[in-house]
Amino acid sequence: MKNLKVLNNIDSAHISIISRVLWYLPHPVKHSVCENLIQSLPKDIKELKKLQEFSISNNKLVFLPVQLFWLTKLKELRVDDNKLEFLSDKAKNLQEFRVLNLAKNLFKRITDNLCNCTMLKHLIIHDNQLTQLPANIHRLKHLKFSLSRNLDLLDEQIPHLKDLSKIEFSGNALTYIPVELKNCIRVTKADLSNNKQFPNALCALFDLKPLNHSGHCISEIIPGISDIKDLEHLELNKNKLSSFSACLCSLTKLVYLDENEINSMPAAVSEMKALQVLLLHQKKFDSFIEEVCSLKCFKTLDISNNQIKIFTDSNLEVFKDLNVSNHQFASFSSEIHPLSSLETLMVCRMNGLRRREHCL
Fold first, then answer.
1. Average pLDDT across the chain, whole number
2. Which of 121, 128, 167, 127 lies closest to 155 in space, CA to CA?
3. Roughly how many angstroms between the first and final C-alpha of the chain, as a whole number?
4. For residue 169, which of 18, 151, 190, 262 sits 20 to 30 Å off, Cα-Cα?
5. Residue 333 burial (CB < 10 Å; 0-12/13-18/19+)?
6. Element (H or E) spanning 356, and its range?
7. CB 328 within 8 A of CB 305
8. What tens digit of pLDDT does each residue of 48-68 get?
9. Distance between CA 128 and CA 103 in Å, rounded?
10. 58 Cα distance to chain centroid
11. Residue 146 pairs with which residues in a beta bridge?
12. Kind of pairing, strands 30-32 and 145-148?
């Protein structure tokens, strides 16, 4: 075993103690002991001087020994899904750090010394008890992925992360997002679902492709969203929107849209030439949405759980997936034609009629 470099087959082995023999192997650079019952790491871990990747996710760790941070060649450390509360200030020693996964632990704060690891690219800290980010997080110039939960303020240092390409702050209680966020011009993906506001700064992120802003309490869309010309995927479910905002109709590249609580569609939706997917289930529509029938790229429509009684005789040739379950149709099969491109049709009635699902 003298030349052993990768040791990653001890996952899910139900071990509670790592054998001391491992610490004296001369060459391991990658080691994984995920999904076990390990409660602590021995101090001998310092002997793995060439270790570059270490994964000990989904165990029962309550602390990380300071000796772990003597492994100066370490590039990736994954300790997610444990019971950790504290990250040593010695983390600053890991100047080769690229990936740090601290998700699903009990951290209330992250040491600011971590911000000295200036090569860090991926910092994953969701599902902890954090209320704020490290004060000097702006030093992590290469950071591209950072997320947390239970934050109520988005640190004003975030906009200084010039290489930030993804913003994922779902499941927080954000009440303040600095307008300087617009300076993160390389951001192409944003997930701010289950927060408390729609930040105006998002509208200045012109390269944004997917945007998830579901689970808020917003009742209207700010007009500035139409400035994100390249937006392709928008999720706005679980809000309080009562109408389909006309400003969305100018997003001509949008291919996926999930709205909520609306009961009508404007005629201008026909301008959304690239729209392919529209999910309008559990809404208040009482008539079929004919406006989408003119969209040549359209493929998927889910209008299940509405109040539609009559299925219109419209041009439905472009549809590939159609879900019209749980309506009040008096009849169905004779009312839909042509559907020459249809691959999946779902029809289900709440009143006891059997579900019909066809893959054509």
1. 78
2. 167
3. 56
4. 262
5. exposed
6. strand 356-359
7. no
8. 888 999 999 999 999 999 999
9. 7
10. 21
11. 123, 167
12. unpaired
Burial 10-32 (b: 16+ CB within 10 A, else e): beeeeeeebeeebbebeebbbbb
Enter the pTM of the model: 0.67
- Numbers of helices and strands, H then E, in the chain: 0, 17
Does the CA dihedral 332-333-335-339 come out positive or negative?
positive
Phi, then psi, of 38 in degrees rounded to 5: -75, 130
315 sits in which H/E element: none
- Give yes or no for a contact between 325 and 355, defined as CB atoms under 8 angstroms apart: yes
Residue 266 tokens read as 């404007």
In angstroms and rounded to an integer, the radius of gyration of the C-alpha atoms of the chain is: 26
CB of 240 closer than 8 Å to CB of 265: no
Give the residue carrying structure tokens 């992590």: 140
> How far, in Å, are 13, 32, 197 from residue 103 at the CA level?
22, 17, 24
DSSP H stretches of helix in the chain: none
Nearest alpha-carbon partner for 80 in 131, 127, 117, 43: 127
Phi and psi (nearest 5°) for 145? -150, 110
Comparing 154-158, 231-235, 305-309, 322-326, which segment has the lowest mean pLDDT?
154-158
Distance CA 127, CA 58 (A): 14
Higher pLDDT, 118 or 3: 118
Number of Cβ atoms within 10 Å of the Cβ of 331: 8
Question: Strands 145-148 and 122-125: what pairing?
Answer: parallel
Structure tokens at 7: 């040791």
**Of the candidates 150, 67, 139, the residue with the CA atom closest to the CA atom of residue 103:** 150
